[in-house]
Design a protein that fits this description.
This protein is mainly alpha-helical and 278 residues long. The chain has three domains: 102 residues, Four Helix Bundle (Hemerythrin (Met), subunit A); 63 residues, Orthogonal Bundle (Arc Repressor Mutant, subunit A); 69 residues, Arc Repressor Mutant, subunit A (Orthogonal Bundle), CATH 1.10.10. The chain contains twelve helices and four strands. A two-stranded antiparallel sheet has the order 1-2. A two-stranded antiparallel sheet has the order 3-4. β1 and β2 form a beta hairpin. It is elongated and about 100 Å long.
């Protein structure tokens, strides 16, 4: 069933379809300069545009935009089609429509990705869909990489070109690049008018409010230490030096240094009760 799209107040679900004979006749007359035949040919193939944009519906929130862009591709196909070639019009028009839609999605994406990477991603997605049907499960990245390289190698050999295989990392990066960004305000659950948004499910395990309080208290406690005690703590616990190295550097005997180190820690532990942080 075709998706209902309103274009200039016309429901495209009610648009007529053309037979192959009618298409050939309109194409011939269109090439002779008959604008009426050209318009009839375009209107009679709008359902073809609808069938193509269904594949891209998940990548665009507004199907009207996709439909209009697809119509641009259809018009280009009508104007550039060679009636002397033994090819059906739909066979020529579909790639033109797909190319126009892909160009629109690429140019209007929130994250700009190079065309070469997008092309690689689309090829990898096609291979992944085929392998999913073949294996009855989601294929792994190594399987996708192997199948894609074999397919591209065969295509390159058929036209006599050299081919450099893609690595798994390149394919993974390409697939990640075409993933649509998700808004933090996208609802993940809704019941009775109360929605839970994605941002409600994401939190920073390191930057919690408890850690902020501890860090503030720790900072205040360190300010109460003397310069010598701060030096000992910095050398021992931030620079990672051993007790003997710290004692040698500050000019203390080892046993006395241990005593001084313990004194500094006692003060800090009493102040913030967070000796375990170190």
């Amino acid at each position: 069933m075709y998706q209902k799209v309103e274009v200039s107040g016309i429901n495209t679900a009610n648009l007529p379809t053309l037979s192959e004979e009618q298409k050939e006749e309109y194409l011939r007359r269109s090439k002779e300069g008959d604008e009426g035949a050209r318009n009839e040919l375009i209107a009679g193939n709008l359902r073809l545009v609808l069938s193509v944009i269904q594949k891209f519906s998940r990548r665009c929130d507004n199907p009207d935009d996709l439909f209009q862009v697809g119509c641009v591709g259809l018009i280009k196909a009508v104007d550039n089609f060679d009636i002397d070639q033994n090819v059906k019009f739909s066979t020529y028009a579909v790639p033109m429509i797909i190319g126009e839609v892909r160009r629109y999605l690429r140019d209007n994406n929130m994250i700009r990705v190079s065309r070469s990477m997008r092309d690689l991603a689309y090829k990898a997605l096609t291979v992944r869909e085929n392998l999913t049907v073949q294996y009855g499960r989601e294929p792994t990245n190594p399987e996708i990489c192997k199948a894609l390289n074999e397919r591209l190698q065969q295509q390159a050999a058929a036209i006599g070109e050299e081919f450099s295989p893609y690595s798994e990392k390149q394919i993974e990066e390409a697939l990640d690049a075409v993933v649509d960004p998700v808004s933090l305000y996208d609802p993940v659950y809704s019941e009775g008018g109360d929605s839970i948004y994605l941002m409600d499910q994401i939190f920073d395990t390191k930057g919690t409010s408890e850690s902020w309080v501890e860090n503030i208290a720790l900072d205040e406690a360190i300010k109460t230490l003397g310069p010598r005690e701060k030096t000992i703590l910095n050398l021992r616990f931030f620079q990672g030096k051993t007790q003997m190295e710290v004692a040698s550097e500050i000019g203390m005997v080892h046993n006395k240094k241990q005593k001084k180190n313990s004194s500094a820690f006692c003060k800090k532990t009493v102040a913030v009760k967070s000796f375990f942080l170190f």
